[in-house]
Amino acid sequence: MVISILSTSILEGFKTEIEDKIYGLSGHIMVTKFDLNRSFEESPFDKNRDIYLHPDSVYGVRSVQPIVHKPGLLKSNSEIVGIILKGVEKNYNWDLFSKNIVEGKVPAFSDTTYSKEVMISRRIANDLHVKLHDTILLCFVQQSPRFRKVNVSGIYETGLEEFDEHMIMGDAGLVRRLYNLSDSIAGSYEIIVNDFSQLDSTALAVEESLDYDLAYMTVKERYMQIFDWMMLLDRNVLVFLILIIGVGTFVMVSTLLIMIMERTSMIGLLKALGARNYQVRRIFLMNGGYLVVKGLLFGNAIGLSLCWLQYHFKLMPLDPNTYYMNSVPIAWTWNMFILLNVLFATILMLIQLLPVIMISRISPAKSVKFN
């Protein structure tokens, strides 16, 4: 029971942490202009479409956020790196992304002009040898290169190399000003859904509501390799639970068989005094049920205690380059905990019926001889 609780908590923790990191950086569904462009630079379009102006009219959609992505260079006094600026607007929802911020805060936006603050990853900060509140040079390469000095307002870390190596976040107004674009221009939409389990049906509703020149891609399609990896984790834990149930079943059966063998003379005596087979079986089933309940109580107490310690004190660290996070994550999946308890109790109680069948074959005469 302890191992089952730990394995399911850690698995769900891994999935939740990684999914939240991805959603915070790319949303659940991304909508771009339909073209053959496969570069980091998106084809701009007018953001004032029906899906943006009336997101509530689309099934399952919580919010639609216009985004502008532009590739460029970031230069400090000694180093230079290639980046992709993710330009967001003042009303951008930072809730999903906020847990990735390790220093500072999100860029401050102004009502009158664009913000000159950016948020960079810890990986980029280390490569450039800069820290919080330092000033760095942002360059967009075009026919006439454009330069802007920007201030580091915050540093984030997701552990996902694909993001941390290149992605910085800033004001979409900065990109629009440098490229002489109007405030109504966007490069893509990030769509947040109400229920991720209904992502496929919501994506179909989004597709029906889009104009002919727009195309969509779900986060599962965009980062297929990460979600395939998480599906493998699900299978591994399922196999692991089957093995644990098999071991528990074997232990329970062997325990009851030993109890029956040790109490053979008692069984014969009870039968000689007039006890029926079902009455003797009930004694052993009640004793086995007591052991099952006792084991579940101790297993839950130990398993949940270990989860609590890891959740609050991060006792088991991880390599973020391999696991995308700094410590073993824990998710409090109470529905899964209840399901595990019901599953274990049901299987172990049913499996007790096999050894107690032997009781009907024990006769008083043989039990005396056995004694």
Characteristics:
14 helices, single chain, two-stranded antiparallel ribbon, alpha+beta, ten-stranded mixed beta sheet, 371 residues, 49% helix, 2 domains
Please outline what is shown here.
With 371 residues, the chain is of the alpha+beta class. It has helices spanning 2-26, 50-53, 122-128, 161-164, 172-178, 199-209, 219-222, 224-262, 264-272, 277-313, 320-323, 334-351, 353-356, 364-370, and strands at residues 29-33, 45-46, 61-75, 80-88, 101-104, 117-121, 135-140, 146-156, 167-171, 185-186, 188-193, 214-218.
Structure, explained:
The protein is of the alpha+beta class. It has 2 domains: 35-211, no CATH class; 226-370, no CATH class. Helices cover 49% and strands 20% of the residues. It has helices spanning 2-26, 50-53, 122-128, 161-164, 172-178, 199-209, 219-222, 224-262, 264-272, 277-313, 320-323, 334-351, 353-356, 364-370; strands at residues 29-33, 45-46, 61-75, 80-88, 101-104, 117-121, 135-140, 146-156, 167-171, 185-186, 188-193, 214-218. The longest helix is centred in the middle third of the chain and has 39 residues, at 224-262. It is elongated and about 105 Å long. The mean pLDDT is 88.
Radius of gyration: 30 Å
Provide a count of the helices. 14
Based on secondary structure, the structural category is alpha+beta
Task: Report strand %.
Answer: 15-25%
Shape: elongated
> Tally of extended strands?
12
Largest sheet: 10 strands, mixed
Order of helices and strands: HEEHEEEEHEEHEHEEHEHHHHHHHH
The percent of residues in helical segments reads 40-55%
Alpha-carbon distance between the two ends: 37 Å
- Which ranges are low-confidence, i.e. pLDDT below 50, for 5 or more consecutive residues? none
**Nearest-integer average pLDDT:** 88
Oligomer: single chain
How many domains in all?
2
